[in-house]
Amino acid sequence: MRESVQAEVLMCFLVSEELSFKVPVELCYDTEDPYAVRMTFHLPGDAPVTWAFGRELLLDGVNAPSGRGDVHIAPLDHGESGVLRDVTIRLQVGEDRALFRVGVAPLVAFLDRTDALVPLGQEWALSDFEGHLEAALGRILAEENAG
Q1: How far apart are CA 5 and CA 16, in angstroms?
Q2: Alpha carbon separation from 5 to 26, 30, 129, 138 (Å, rounded)
Q3: pLDDT tens track for 102-115
Q4: Bridge partners, residue 21, by sequence
Q5: Rounded CA separation 108/60 (Å)
Q6: Which pTM was predicted?
């Protein structure tokens, strides 16, 4: 049975050191793809943009700088209180980068709900890697033959 966990959070889009604004971001975890989380960013004046990356990367990034390649997630300095409050998420395509800041509490709450649905390390029990690979290759071949 297909199940999912969804949440909406406000993230601060850090355009520069002087300019930032809040954007709504939908978080989604689906048992159909148990290793991944999806974030859909709703930037003003643009179509929504969805990024998918490993659930474990998001979990690791809440605790320590994580990610290689296009997605980097890191906790911000705890400051004098020693309490972690925010996380940064950097997304990159080529030379283009987007940096977001989000409170750690909604991310941890979302991750807790995903863990209740599919415990970390148990994704393999739901994963149909071969089926997903066949479907993806079929779509690629169909696009090549159509074009």
Answers
A1: 32
A2: 11, 6, 21, 28
A3: 999 999 999 999 99
A4: 13
A5: 11
A6: 0.77
